[in-house]
Design brief:
GO terms for molecular function: structural constituent of ribosome. The chain is mainly β. It has one helix at residues 2-6; strands at residues 9-14, 21-25, 36-41, 46-53. A 4-stranded antiparallel beta sheet has the order 2-1-4-3, with no helix packed on it. The two termini are 20 Å apart.
């Protein structure tokens, strides 16, 4: 299916080392590199960078 090819499901893992992850989709055409988003880590109770894990 074309839906899975263009917008794959990716896991975002915390760079703080807490092991917390977010699951989201990304557009592979617009963002071919690994995503880095600044999101809330509930273990640390603050915002940290989350990197795409493959």
């Amino acid at each position: 299916m074309a839906r899975n090819d263009v917008r794959p499901i990716v896991r975002l893992r915390s760079t703080a080392g807490t092991g917390h992850t977010y699951v989201t989709r990304k557009n592979r055409r617009n963002d071919p590199d690994r995503m880095v988003l600044r999101k809330f880590d509930p273990v640390l109770r603050r915002h940290v960078d989350f990197r795409e894990e493959r």
